[in-house]
Write a structure and sequence with these properties.
This protein has a single domain, classed as Alpha/beta knot, CATH 3.40.1280.10. It starts with a strand and ends in a 7-residue tail after the last helix. The longest helix is centred in the C-terminal third of the chain and has 19 residues. Helices cover about 45% and strands about 20% of the residues. The chain has a five-stranded parallel sheet. It has five helices and five strands.
Length: about 160
Amino acid sequence: MNINIICVGKVREKFFTAAVDEYIKRLSRFAKVTVTEVADEKIPEKASEKEIETIKKKEGEKILAKLGSEYVIALCIEGTEMSSEEIAAKIADISMTSSGIAFIIGGSLGLSDEVKKRANMRLSFGRVTLPHQLMRVVLAEQIYRAFKINNNESYHK
């Protein structure tokens, strides 16, 4: 299975990069995982609603340009909350009908409506707001956990 984590912006802290890299290394025996970064847009200090929507739309266009025919899961606060076991079952189901999954993490303003409409599913890790750099770590760990669960290996307790 191919997994592409599409993110807006770059990770600046080395400890986040190291954590994501570690989970991708662990995942390599289960799937081919890539991280695709798209450039974030500059946000004016006191951006109007119109400016915010324009920025999200521009970032969304960059995300959509990176998508193919894979199953798309958009991470957004209004998405469906799932347990680790449910995420594992969903990945197993998707693997029966698709050769790939794209997980999308938006920038600090969130995802455009166009990206949300393109998504096959919207997933939420709860109502808390996490920095998008930390979200990469959380997502990579949950994908790894899902594969361990699906392979009946002792990681998930």
